[in-house]
Amino acid sequence: MENKLKIHFIGIGGSSMNGLALIMKSRGHEITGSDMAKSPFTEYLESKGIPVIIGQKKENIKDQDIVVHTAAISEDNEELREARRKGIMTVDRATFLGKITKEFETAIGIAGCHGKTTITSMIGLITLKENVDPTIHIGASVPFFKGGGTHIGSGNIFIAEACEYENSYHQFSLTMAVINNIDNDHLNFFGSMENITASFLTFAKQLPKSGLLIANSGDDRVRNIAAKVNCSVQTYNVNGEGEWQAKDIVHHSSGSTTFNVLRNGKVLSSCNLNVPGEHNVQNALAAIIVCYNLGIPVENSCKDLEEYKLTKRRFEYYGKVGSMTLIHDYAHHPTEIRACIKTAEPLPHDRLIGIFQCHTFTRAINHLDEFGEALKDLDEVIVTDIYPAREKDEGKIHAKDIVQTVNSKGGNAVYIPDFEGVKEYFADKKENEDIILAIGAGDIGEKVKILLD
Q: Looking only at Cα atoms, what is the longest distance across the chain?
């Protein structure tokens, strides 16, 4: 996009869209946007000189060169229809992000069904502390970024999450990529595990011969893909075979984790990670390898990661409910739920109690048995009504089905439809030294705060 353009963003307050707007403004383009309501994101954009119109009317579309919209924008949206009527180029968010990757000399995509946000934010912390100063785009609020999940860098390096949903990452033009894992998520789009794996293979094969794939060899599907690409490959593994390894892992009751980083069997550095969980050791290892390939010594990355704190909604401490500790985690896939529970286990507690809000009816149907297996390991789990997100309730599945499945596997689950009921449930239990894990990607992150009142 060499020419200076007028670009309008429909839904500019979105977690990804606001960052794209900031990036394009930093590159000299004239930016406008609209959203349905004010938010901290829209206020931050306005403080940076980007006008945000509240309300999406056709009058907002004038003489723009490009109109960018999210996937959530319907075809009958007034602005979108007006842009098309006027012959203005309209581009969806994923395609536009792909165009941005082409503008940087070095473009790095962090892919995988789990861990993308954490790995990318870890890379962000390290590179900023080491004065590499890339432009970084993350779909979540990052504590050490100003204004959300995007940092505008001064260099010619771009780093972003590469999301597999609807094959969004196929739009990317990358020089380096990470594949952290492949799992049976987004089955409403992919339909099968085979299709998911094929999608990741297409993504990996798009890397040029001069590119680099950083692949988790502890995941069989990722390892098989790594054997089929034409570019260079560096593998990593936690307590397993790989060019890069994390070994001698110790989980401390304080929530910190120590481990050694090895390459080709040689210990390069010890690390002290002040966030819990073996999955975060894996995430940290991937981040360290990316930074090493950007010229940052491993020991520097390990030192920098001592300051790392999880992004919002990733095992986030909310506060106390009497003597109980309330933690929220964005986990919405059975693999993520198991990782969340495993992360909590070393922490001091009497019981682990879950509050689970399933994210979408499709996930409940596709992963019903797996949810039962994951949630049965909690001492007790409250299941609330399913969060519909973009879906409609067709009556095929209910939260009670999740409860029944958990209990059929030897777990201890109860159904409470709403969070007023959840608050009442805990009213006489506040003397317990329990950990409450609020699990889900819907509005549970806000609704569960009622327990803190």
A: 64
180-189: pLDDT as tens digits: 999 877 677 7
Quick count: other Cβ atoms within 10 Å of Cβ 103? 16
Say whether 96 sits in a helix, a strand or coil: helix
Q: Would you state the structure tokens that stand for residue 113, as one six-digit string?
A: 């069904």
Cβ atoms of residues 274 and 306 within 8 Å: yes
Which residues are within 8 A (CB) of 222 and not within 5 positions of it... i.e. 6 or more apart?
A: 179, 180, 181, 182, 200, 215, 216
- How many helices (H) and strands (E) the chain has is answered by 16, 21
Q: Are 208 and 231 in contact, with CB atoms under 8 Å apart?
A: yes
- In this predicted model, what pLDDT tens digit does every residue of 250-268 receive, in sequence order? 988 777 899 999 999 999 9
Short-list 424, 416, 390, 24, CA closest to 189: 390
Angle ∠(293,133,8) on CA atoms, nearest 5: 115
From 340, 365, 334, select the one nearest 353 (Cα to Cα): 340
Quote the mean pLDDT of the chain: 92
Report the predicted TM-score, pTM, of the whole model to 2 decimal places.
Answer: 0.76
DSSP string, 335-394: HHHHHHHHHHTTS--S-EEEEE--B-HHHHHHTHHHHHHHHTTSSEEEE-PPB-TT----
Q: What are phi and psi of 92, to 5 degrees?
A: -75, 160
Q: What is the pLDDT of residue 423?
A: 94
Task: Evaluate the CA torsion angle 145, 146, 150, 154 in order and state its sign.
Answer: negative
Q: How many Å apart are CA 424 and CA 448, to the nearest integer?
A: 12
CA atoms within 13 A on the CB side of 260: 10
Q: Say which DSSP state 196 is in.
A: H
> Tokens 């805990």 appear where?
426
DSSP assignments along 134-192, one per residue: -EEE-SS--TTSSSSSEE--SSSEEEEE---GGGGGGG---SEEEE----S--HHHH-S
> Tokens 């492949």, residue?
182
Q: Report which listed range, 181-185, 306-310, 422-426, is most confident.
A: 422-426
Question: 413 in helix, strand or coil?
Answer: strand
What's the start-to-end Cα distance of the chain, in Å?
A: 50
Is residue 447 exposed (0-12), middle (13-18) or buried (19+ Cβ within 10 Å)?
A: buried
Render pLDDT for 93-144 as a digit per residue (tens, 0 to 9): 989 999 999 999 999 999 998 899 999 999 999 999 999 999 999 977 787 7
Q: What values do phi and psi take at 340, rounded to 5?
A: -60, -45
